[in-house]
Specification:
TIM Barrel, alpha/beta, single chain
Length: 404
């Protein structure tokens, strides 16, 4: 009896903490500003209306994870899927989201203004919003920007990894010069050209402000970032970026950029990808993808045909990276860093679920969002601060940008 009593005394605080954290998590409005399920699953014919055994996301698991608002990424690669081009690709993905929403109208709604967002949250539906990941999808045409706005686009990432004629990406601003690619619709930039936004790029930013489309500065180069900050009249978003000072890779943001976002009133939404969270993981991956990794792959290739080699290499690649996967604590380190540098008003959640190949240990899919709340509570964050981080900050940026 004494043993049971002692165990109860020691376990009671843990139990109460878990209950308190869970209650807070499901009471807060959770907003995730970046998920790639449309391009990674829906276009492949998978039905996210039901629980899937693959991927990170579906409607059942979102509810289990306590998600209230999801920006669905509309994305296409450097080369368009459709012969008509990038704009066609974007519209195809928006079509797919509209169909999913109509089929699940009792538990999901597609919002285009702040009032609709709040209404959907009150109705306890998953609120879907459209974020276009890459300015190449407007094909240098302001009328196509307007058209995507009319279809529901409420943020646009100025560049993806590829640059446009009017804005340079982080990948291109940090890459060595390269030759033009073969013909076929692929976009590129020679990194010796002028970096940042052109006058047309600034015109696009101003038009986004007029329409009520949030300017998303994830993926953009530093010069593009500062040009956009100087041009915009509204708070910006970084929909899926992490901290360069913790993990110095081209996609993460430096301290001065973080301060600039705070001064602008924007929000940096932390990306969950292992390679953007932990520098050891990033270094190991760079090793495997570099010259030494190629030597290992070539040595394996002596025993297998091309198809089998890829299968064996992928297994080897994953097994080598597994010990380097970061913890949930490392993910929250990025949130904590931003909050300590500029305050808890300027950080949020931008998972990149269904768009990344590796996640922190335990962060297996969208059901695991509560682990972030647990860790923030464990670090002493107040309920008020946690509610801001989970969604309140992004809601503020939406309200500042969207037409009512």
């Amino acid at each position: 009896m004494k043993k049971i009593l002692i165990l109860f005394i020691f376990e009671l605080p843990i139990l109460l903490f878990a209950q308190s954290s869970k209650k807070l998590h499901f009471k807060a409005v959770l907003v995730d500003t970046h998920n790639d399920v449309l391009s990674s699953s829906v276009l492949e014919g998978k039905d996210i209306s039901h629980r899937l055994t693959t991927g990170h996301s579906d409607l059942d698991r979102w509810r289990e994870g306590g998600l209230d608002v999801q920006f669905f990424s509309v994305w296409t690669d450097r080369t368009p899927r459709n012969k008509e081009g990038f704009f066609k690709d974007a519209n195809q993905e928006i079509d797919s989201l509209e169909i999913i929403t109509l089929r699940n109208a009792f538990r999901m709604t597609l919002a285009t203004n702040y009032k609709e967002v709040k209404k959907g949250i009150k109705q306890k539906k998953l609120v879907a919003l459209i974020g276009v990941e890459g300015g190449h999808m407007i094909e240098d045409d302001l009328t196509k920007l307007d058209s995507l706005y009319k279809r529901g686009m409420r943020y646009m990432t100025l560049t993806w990894n590829n640059s446009t004629s009017w804005a340079t990406s982080a990948m291109d601003e940090t890459a060595p010069s390269k030759s033009p690619p073969p013909a076929g619709g692929e976009t590129y930039v020679d990194s010796t050209r002028r970096k940042g936004l052109t006058e047309f790029g600034k015109q696009i930013v101003r038009r986004m402000n007029e329409l009520g489309v949030i300017v998303d500065l994830s993926h953009v180069g530093e010069q593009t970032f500062y040009d956009a900050i100087a041009t915009t009249s509204k708070p910006v978003l970084l929909s899926h970026s992490s901290v360069w000072n913790i993990c110095p890779v081209f996609r993460n943001v430096k301290d001065d950029q973080i301060r600039a976002v705070a001064k602008n009133g924007g929000v940096i939404c932390v990306n969950f990808y292992s390679g953007f969270l932990d520098s050891n993981f990033a270094k190991k991956m760079a090793f495997l993808e570099g010259t030494e990794g190629k030597k290992i792959k070539d040595s394996l290739g002596q025993n297998y045909d091309a198809v089998k080699l890829n299968e064996v290499w992928n297994k080897y690649f994953s097994a080598q990276l597994e010990p380097y996967r970061p913890t949930i604590s490392k993910l929250v380190d990025h949130i904590d860093y931003i909050a300590k540098l500029v305050g808890d008003d300027y950080v949020g959640i931008g998972s990149d679920f269904d768009g990344v190949s590796s996640l922190p240990v335990g962060m297996d899919d969208v059901t695991k969002y509560p682990l972030i709340t647990d860790e923030l509570k464990r670090r002493g964050y107040s309920n008020k601060s946690i509610k801001k981080i989970l969604g309140g900050n992004v809601l503020r940026v939406m309200k500042s940008n969207f037409k009512k």
